[in-house]
Hints:
The chain is an alpha/beta fold.
Amino acid sequence: MKKGPGKVFERIYIHAAKIKTTEGWILALHSMDGLSEFAFQPVFNKKPEVTVELLNQLFDNTLKDYNTVFHPKQIVFVTNLPEEYAELIQQTKAARHRFIFDKEVTLKAMHGLLSRMTHELIEL
């Protein structure tokens, strides 16, 4: 992977984690543009499980302002999700983009955003 993105929407990081609430565990998905470090609207699920519907909701939030005329034709999504979710991701509206499953790179890139969270994030 090259040093860093040169354009908005060239690389987007996706972080998935469980959060303990008073009602039990929930799933939180955060996404952030690699160049601008803009955090897109997160997605939460009352059950700590990743579904196609939940991922599509995340991609709706993330790609709302994406335009292939101005932005790269293919986005590289880097995520801390385990690679076992690759098949599930291929069923989403973002399937034509490229996905890299790398926990360390995701955590390093999103450290600033994640360190400001007031709740404890537990890896999937």
